[in-house]
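Dear colleague,

Following up on Tuesday's group meeting, I ran the structure prediction for the two-component complex that the binding team flagged. I've pasted the input sequences exactly as they went in, so you can double-check that nothing got truncated or mislabelled along the way. The structure tokens for the whole assembly follow below. Feel free to forward this to whoever is handling the docking comparison.

Inputs:
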Amino acid sequence: DVKVTQSSRYLVKRTGEKVFLECVQDMDHENMFWYRQDPGLGLRLIYFSYDVKMKEKGDIPEGYSVSREKKERFSLILESASTNQTSMYLCASSLYLANEQFFGPGTRLTVL
Amino acid sequence: DQQVKQNSPSLSVQEGRISILNCDYTNSMFDYFLWYKKYPAEGPTFLISISSIKDKNEDGRFTVFLNKSAKHLSLHIVPSQPGDSAVYFCAASAKGLDEKLTFGTGTRLTIIP
């Protein structure tokens, strides 16, 4: 059974803290994605990666960075968390860019 | 510029009746369309897809219809069940160009028992 796992289901951080969200997939997929989901705004793409050490900005990259040192692992970093980054963060992977994506369970991040 | 639009943020349907969720797109290069279902506090799960060479694809209670000339797709759920209550996202991609999926904003479906 294909699997995408995320390091935490729920996370509470303080404004200004550095936050790491980690995602691991076991499907040997080339492509990995980070989204945030907010009510009424749908799924907004933050960053994606099509290969190890390669990354591309999505629609809302400001305030975020990513790291992909290994094929199976894609990390999202909030350098200095702010309250407007309170959201549900979803990681996904896919074999080809245009194919269906498989999602992890999500991390509900609250920044106080 | 929202290339994939779901104009109804919410929809309520009686249990046992048909649920119809709609999605419009603007990019004529899109040739692959998907529907995802998302429960609260869970990641979206793939439901059904359709390629632009077809106009209909069916999987059990779920049918997706594609009208290329109108740039419109719809998801029909028959009969609707309480477990179908979720947020539904449509997504599209230009598979021929290997471009990533673009998602709509979602429609919250509530099935009334």
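The longest strand of chain A covers residues 42-51.

Cheers,
M.
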